[in-house]
């Protein structure tokens, strides 16, 4: 999905969530992304600022990025402990969805990123994630299939292929 595609999905999500009387703030990182240490530090600073902002109740990732783990040395976990907020994201965001409860005793949801809320109609997993954030649910169950941005997949669920034997097995099936 292109950066413009992400922006379009976020605009749809923003319209839907504003209709639900949600107050949203968007990261400046959405408009400009550059690679390198300076950007990594700025990203961590922005996360710290949102955790320090008394008006912010939840942080929802817009996506991951294989370099997300590089922000960790610059994230202020002591500040986060003092200013707990929900965090939701998945994939590369696992570096936060795992560490926040582990280090800071702060709740996190391994769930959809913001652009996914622009999907219409919402998949039950999206509704469940929203209901968790809004306090309407405290548990969720698994789902039969996975869908991203309206594209359905019928696939072999392999997880992580760690050996030649596993790869050979997948080749036999395909």
What does this structure look like?
- It contains six helices and five strands; from the N terminus they run ααβαβαβαββα.
- With about 170 residues, it is mainly alpha-helical.
- The protein has a three-stranded parallel beta sheet, with helices on both faces. A two-stranded antiparallel ribbon has the order 4-5.
- The chain starts with a helix and ends with a helix.
- The model has no long low-confidence stretch (mean pLDDT about 80).
Quick summary:
The chain has helices spanning 3-19, 37-52, 77-82, 94-104, 124-133, 164-173, and strands spanning 58-60, 86-89, 108-110, 147-148, 151-152. By secondary structure, the protein is mostly helical. The chain is globular.
Q: How many angstroms does the end-to-end distance come to?
A: 26 Å
Order of helices and strands: HHEHEHEHEEH
Mean pLDDT: 78
Helix content: 40-55%
Question: How would you sum up the major sheet?
Answer: 3 strands, parallel
Query: Hey, roughly how much beta strand do the residues contain?
Result: 5-15%
Structural class of the secondary structure composition?
Answer: mainly alpha
Unreliable spans: none
* Main sheet strand line-up: 1-2-3
Overall form: globular
Structure annotation, total helices? 6
Cα-atom Rg, whole angstroms? 18 Å
Number of distinct beta strands: 5
Write the layout of secondary structure elements.
Elements: H1 3-19, H2 37-52, E1 58-60, H3 77-82, E2 86-89, H4 94-104, E3 108-110, H5 124-133, E4 147-148, E5 151-152, H6 164-173
Parallel strand pairs: 1-2, 2-3
Antiparallel strand pairs: 4-5
Features:
single chain; 174 residues; mainly alpha; three-stranded parallel beta sheet; two-stranded antiparallel sheet; 6 helices; 40% helix; globular
């Amino acid at each position: 999905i292109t950066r413009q595609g992400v922006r379009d999905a976020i605009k749809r999500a923003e319209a839907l969530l504003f209709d639900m009387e949600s107050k949203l703030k968007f990261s400046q990182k959405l408009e400009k992304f550059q690679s390198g240490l300076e950007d990594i530090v700025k990203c961590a600073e922005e996360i710290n600022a949102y955790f320090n902002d008394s008006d912010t109740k939840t942080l929802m990732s817009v996506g991951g990025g294989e370099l997300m783990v590089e922000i960790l040395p610059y994230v202020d976990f002591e500040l986060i402990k003092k200013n707990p907020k929900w965090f939701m994201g998945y994939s590369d965001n696992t570096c936060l969805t795992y560490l926040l409860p582990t280090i800071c005793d702060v709740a996190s949801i391994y769930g959809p990123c913001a652009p996914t809320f622009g999907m219409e109609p919402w998949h039950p997993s999206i509704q469940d994630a929203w209901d968790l954030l809004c306090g309407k649910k405290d548990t969720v169950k698994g789902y039969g299939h996975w869908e991203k941005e309206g594209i359905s997949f019928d696939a072999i669920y392999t997880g992580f292929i760690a050996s030649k034997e596993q790869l050979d097995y997948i080749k036999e099936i395909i």
